[in-house]
Design brief:
Elements (H helix, E strand, L loop, with lengths): L2 H8 L9 H5 L6 H8 L1 H9 L10 E4 L7 E4 L2 E2 L1 H14 L3 E6 L5 E5 H17 L8 E4 L4 H13 L3 E3 L6 H11 L3 E5 L1 E4 L2 E4 L1 H8 L7 E5 L13 E3 H4 L12 E2 L3 E7 L7 E6 L1 H14 L8 E4 L6 H13 L3 E5 L10 H9 L3 E4 L1 H10 L2 H4 L8 E5 L5 H11 L6 E4 L33 E4 L11 E6 L9 E2 L3 H9 L6 E9 L5 E6 L3 E4 L2 E4 H9 L4 E11 L3 E10 L1 H10 L1 H15 L8 E4 L13 H8 L14 H9 L5
Helix pairs in contact: 3-4, 5-6, 5-7, 5-12, 6-7, 8-9, 11-12, 14-16, 19-20
Bound molecules: 5'-O-[(S)-ethoxy(hydroxy)phosphoryl]adenosine (WTA).
5'-O-[(S)-ethoxy(hydroxy)phosphoryl]adenosine binds next to α12, β20, β24 and β25.
Protein name: Acetyl-coenzyme A synthetase
GO molecular function, one term: AMP binding
Organism: Actinacidiphila alni
Length: 654
């Protein structure tokens, strides 16, 4: 983030106290901060008591093996039972769990009783495929109810799931299946995106060519498109699941039993399998959802407009809302299909009270203009949330005004795949919000902003965000790589968790997130590693070397800009077919290797890359170029004329 943006943020003086009506009936009051500070373990124990435990824990938090944490040790519970059955037992079987809206306009309503029936059938189906507690199951799904059902069925039988975002490529899917050694895959023929069926099954078939140990593929029919079929391996969901017994006795698992693995980009090319476990994760997902969104399960209609393939979908479409017995909206498609008012039409149709989405969506709506949401009745909304990237004050103000009618608090929630649940966020009935600030750690969470040497910075200064105490929903390790877990998160500031984000404390001590400080980009709220895109580019036969940077983008937060040096063959191809054609090929290649979300916005063919004397690529300079900024100090460059050459190749460059 540039100095200019920083000082703009610090000049932000607008303040929004909680609406009195909301504050008067808020689930959480200011006292929670004091209670949690006085005794964090007692605070989290009380939060855990909001769940049903088959056996009580003997210890709330065990940090004796730091940085490997254990929470609620000795306790046993079943996540699916907590998310589904216990609400039915409490007489709430008729409450709607999901209003599902397909992109073409087809709809389904699932009550908690329906969900219980389907989760039990799916659990029995997985058992019939030989899945046992501890086995990993990979999901590659569109946004349909079966995705939730499959996740809960896995949780019910203690088989950790790994959901791979449907926008990822066959290669990415294969890498994840192999890394966690999944033997069963759940998928669909396809899903609807941008007004057309978008196939998923072919990518599974391609991925599995390299996964000999996968024995079963369970396929949901969603779009009806043709699918390839491997006899003996592939089985239709409607054949297998529908034929199962709707009764299944849920077994309670240890609080530290693995619940899921979610892959996320790090600073190397290989994604990290973030492991979440049972009791602590569900406690924090449920408590934060209840507190930060002030949910009233018998009144609210809650909507997280994100994909289940990301952690936001795991914690705030599936586990948090269901643990709280809330009614949610689940939407399959894109925001502009068939028109740019689709989200607002959904809000109006279902009387959505609470909307949670990413700043990139908000900035897109801003670009489309106020008149579009203005055509719908959005008065059911009472609370708005933002997640995934820094929200700039103007987008925050627009969200509050054009969507929230100047009456809804906007909670900017900071957290990560690794944290499992929200960590830094306003509480809507307590906090006076500042546009662009996540304010302070939630009760029970301890965070600090520190300088290079690990000393907390004074108010008014910036540094690195660290978490100084373990928390219930924290990742337990990186799947299969404990050393990498230690090195990545616990080595930079020993004893503290290093989040990889820059942050600033204002004069009140409130926290403003400034984006990643490592080589991870944030494109439309999706984490993508520069190294991952670089290795995809270098795997193309025409490319000799590549350097990738995230450049500020008005809509997506960051856009991927790639600088590539071509091999001799590549130079020749560029001469013959034109540089544009080579760029097109390379963009398609990245899309195939990783997925369309990682496709570079711009590819610049260059003769050389700026490097330090020790041979490190100077990304800061490349970013400056990509953002058309004046260059700073280039004296450590081996050849400072490189920069001029690069700049000449930039469209609009001088
Ligand atoms: C960024 C998404 C600023 C941050 C839940 C973090 C944010 C990364 C915010 C995690 C926010 C998330 N303000 N930045 N409110 N929320 N981030 O793992 O850089 O996909 O490290 O988890 O997103 O992304 P992830």
């Amino acid at each position: 983030m540039s100095e200019e943006t920083l000082s703009n943020l610090l000049r932000e003086e607008r303040r929004f106290p909680p609406p009195p009506e909301l504050a008067a009936h808020a689930n959480v009051t200011a006292a929670a901060y004091e209670e949690a500070a006085a005794d964090p373990e007692a605070f989290w124990a009380a939060a855990a008591h909001r769940l049903d435990w088959a056996r009580p824990w003997t210890q709330v938090r065990d940090w004796s093996g730091a940085p490997f944490a254990r929470w609620f040790t000795g306790g046993r519970l079943n996540v699916a039972d907590n998310c589904v059955d216990r609400h039915v037992r409490a007489g709430l079987g008729d409450r709607v769990a999901f209003h599902w809206e397909g992109e073409p306009g087809d709809t389904r309503t699932l009550t908690y009783a329906d969900l219980k029936d389907q989760v039990c059938r799916a659990a029995n189906a997985l058992l019939s495929l030989g899945v046992q507690a501890g086995d990993r199951v990979a999901l590659y799904m569109p946004m349909i109810p079966e995705t939730v059902v499959a996740m809960l069925a896995c949780a019910r039988i203690g088989a950790p799931h790994t959901v791979v975002f449907g926008g990822f490529s066959a290669d990415a899917l294969r890498g994840r299946i192999l890394d966690c050694d999944a033997r069963v895959v759940v998928t669909a023929d396809g899903g609807y995106r941008k007004g057309a069926p978008s196939a998923l099954k072919p990518a599974v078939d391609e991925a599995l060519e390299g996964c000999p140990d996968v024995r079963s593929v369970l396929v949901v029919r969603r779009t009806g498109q043709d699918v390839g079929w491997t006899e003996g391996r592939d089985v239709w969901w409607h054949d297998l699941v529908d034929a199962q017994d709707p009764a299944h006795e849920a077994e309670a698992f240890d609080s530290e039993h693995p619940l899921y693995i979610m892959y996320t980009s790090g600073t190397t090319a290989r994604p990290k399998g973030i492991l979440h476990t049972t009791g602590g994760y569900l406690t924090q997902a449920a408590w934060t959802h209840w507190a930060v969104f002030d949910v009233k399960p018998d009144q609210d209609v809650y909507w997280t407009a994100a994909d289940i393939g990301w952690v936001t979908g795991h914690s705030y479409i599936v586990y948090g809302p269901l643990a709280n017995g809330v009614t949610s909206v689940l939407y399959e498609g894109t925001p502009d299909t068939p028109h740019q008012g689709r989200w607002w039409e959904i809000v109006e149709k279902y009387n959505v009270t609470t909307l949670y989405c990413a700043p990139t969506a908000i900035r897109t709506f801003m670009k489309w203009g106020d008149t579009i949401p203005g055509q719908y009745d959005l008065t059911s909304l009472r609370l708005l949330g933002s997640v995934g990237e820094p929200i700039n004050p103007e987008a925050w103000m627009w969200y509050r005004h054009a969507i929230g009618g100047d009456r809804c608090p906007v909670v900017d929630t900071w957290w990560q795949t690794e944290t499992g649940a929200q960590m830094i966020s306003p509480l809507p009935g307590v906090s006076t919000c500042k546009p662009g600030s996540a304010l302070r750690p939630l009760p029970g969470i301890a965070a600090e902003v520190v300088d290079d040497t690990g000393r907390p910075v004074p108010n008014g200064s910036g540094g690195y965000l660290v978490l100084t105490q373990p928390w219930p929903g924290m990742l337990r390790t990186i799947w299969g790589d404990e050393q990498r877990y230690i090195d990545t998160y616990w080595s930079r500031f020993p004893g503290w968790y290093f989040a990889g984000d820059g942050a600033k404390k204002d004069e009140d001590g409130d926290i403003w997130l400034l984006g990643r400080v490592d080589d991870v980009m944030n494109v439309s709220g999706h984490r993508i590693s520069t190294t991952e895109v670089e290795s995809a580019l270098v795997s193309h036969p025409l490319v000799a070397e590549a350097a990738v940077v995230g450049a500020t983008d008005a809509t997506t937060g960051q856009g991927i800009v790639a600088f590539v040096i071509l091999r001799a063959e590549g130079e020749k191809a560029a001469e013959e077919a034109g540089g544009d054609d080579v760029a097109r090929q390379l963009r398609a290649h990245v899309s195939k290797e990783i997925g369309p979300i990682a496709r570079p916005r711009q590819i610049l063919v260059v003769a050389e890359l700026p490097k330090t004397r020790s041979g490190k690529i100077m990304r800061r300079l490349l970013r400056d170029i990509a953002e058309h900024r004046d260059l700073g100090d280039v004296t450590t460059l081996t050849d400072s004329t490189v920069m001029d050459t690069i700049r000449e190749r930039l469209p609009g460059g001088s």
